[in-house]
Fold this protein.
Amino acid sequence: MSQTGFITEIETRDEDAVSLPWSVVVHNDPVNLMSYVTMVFQRVLGFPRDRATRHMLEVHHKGRSLVWSGERERAELIVEQLHSYLLLATLEQSEG
Amino acid sequence: MRFRRHSAQAFELYEIHPLFAELLAELPQTAARHNMAEHRVYPDPFGPEADEETRSDWEEHVRPELEKHFANSREVVARDLDSLGDGRRGGRCVIPAEHLDAWLNALNQARLVIVEENKFGETDLSAGGPPDLATRRGLLLLKVHFYAHLQELLVETTG
């Protein structure tokens, strides 16, 4: 076996951690306006207006709404974008 | 205060009452006062079970980007407010269309800061009737409502 001088570190994660989707959840707060939240959902998540309104109302009435789920990297990016609009958003790993 | 849209290029606030001119002039400085609103302006994106590495990655890579974004919004708004004057002869401020996002952002920062600094809750914010302007708290509520009104106006106009 030849030596290249490079050390390769192989990162391993258990199967569940890889396959479980991550959820982006937006939480209610008393400051953000309903119209503003709807606009942000349309912009960041590409929702049509009626879907964005539905999620906004879910946040308003139920305190939270799951707006996206999928792989972690993309979920983190969405949370970052939502934070840039000052929305209260968190990343949660879905339970198996 | 009146509001008009010049085609798709710009928005104009004009005949601004001196009191509202003052509140507008304070917007960038108010929005920058993140100290007491730190946890809300930069909320924790992870639950308590998140590991230290995940958290420090976010602090190292994402937070500086957010800080830069928020500061940039405040600077854009501050420049637009240069033309405001003191409002004694009816203040005026032009918002170029490409600055709208910065305005929405700075208005939201300022509202978050005031709400957190003064511990305003849902009840304070949704109370009917005008706030009591004889008190400092009432004046601050007026400021929150004025910024919200302006934000709503800009969202509706762009939507």
